[in-house]
Amino acid sequence: MSTTTQPPAQRAGRARGGARKGTRPDARLGARTDTRKAYALVAPALAVLAVVIGYPIIRAIWLSFQGNRRLDPKTGVFTDGGFSGLENYMYWITNRCVTPSGAVGTCPPGVLATDFWPAVRITLFFAVVTVLLETVLGLAMAMIMNHPSPARGLIRAAVLIPWAIPTAVTAKLWQFMFAPAGIVNSLLGKDIAWTTDPWAARFAVIIADVWKTTPFMALLILAGLQMIDRDIYEAARVDGASAWQTFTRITLPLVRPALMVAVLFRTLDALRMYDLPVIMISGSSNSPTATISQLVVEDMRQGNFNSASALSTLIFLLIFAVAFVMIRFLGADVGGRRQAKAPKEAAR
């Protein structure tokens, strides 16, 4: 009778493999149970979001394909437009309407004269300029607030005051300052028509918006700066790195995820700008500071809810496109997946 002796390492490997095979069903069962519990906990929140967010979006899209109430020339009675296809979208994009026969013709009387493309240009101009200025100033303010100082708490509280003031109050304050006899003209010694001249009015809105929202950018960037390990800066100082080299090669690369998320949120907010130019300058669609959101509100005030829904859908598509580009191509890590992968890659 012969006995086969196996190496200890091989026996241990088989024992571990058998143990793993024996525990797989239990592990799978536990994972399924945890998944069901997670879905059960998230389901109420998803249901509320579906009612509060999902239903209005679906309702607005459905209304955008319905015609506005219009006067029937035969009966002299206002009737519902019924299904109109792309008539509302064609009106906003081309300033022309689709007739029942399918041809492109003149829009019916009583419909708001569209200023869609000028409003798009003004909205994009506000978004690009304000976000650029707020990013630069917000980064500078965040670095000041992140610097160790006995007065750091007081500095942070003072910086956040403009952001804490309601937007309507901010607009009124700057409206008084930009008045013909206001403090701005008094300090400059000039008589600038800040509320009537087109470019002066636009720059007035930009100044007010930058003053109001820069603290928001600084707060988001500050959160990213506080995640950077101080030992990295100490090592750079020991190696003889200058302040500019430390900023460009350490601070900017490490704060970039938080910076891109802040830029994304602020850009999406700027594309929906409404209250600041309306209160400061004018709520008319012919205003030099009229944004796309102003056209929606004015169209609704005239009772054209369906065409306003179409314009709201166009705004949604614009914001979605901007968000997709920033997340897909500019590296805005909204979900935090890259930060989650970083420790794993470092461990490898």
Task: Please tell me about this protein's structure.
This protein has 348 residues and is mainly α. The protein folds into two domains: 70-105, no CATH class; 116-347, MetI-like fold. It is built from 14 helices and four strands. The strands form two sheets. It has a two-stranded antiparallel sheet with strand order 1-2. The chain has a two-stranded antiparallel sheet with strand order 3-4. A hairpin with a 5-residue loop joins strand 3 and strand 4 (104-105). Helix 3 (116-146) packs antiparallel against helix 10 (243-270) and helix 10 runs antiparallel to helix 13 (305-328). It is flat. It starts with 7 loop residues before the first helix and ends with a helix. Mean pLDDT is 79; it is low at 11-22, 98-105, 109-113 and 342-348.
Strand-helix topology:
Blueprint: H1 8-64, E1 70-71, E2 78-79, H2 87-94, E3 97-98, E4 104-105, H3 116-146, H4 152-159, H5 161-164, H6 167-177, H7 183-188, H8 198-225, H9 230-238, H10 243-270, H11 275-280, H12 292-301, H13 305-328, H14 337-347
Antiparallel strand pairs: 1-2, 3-4
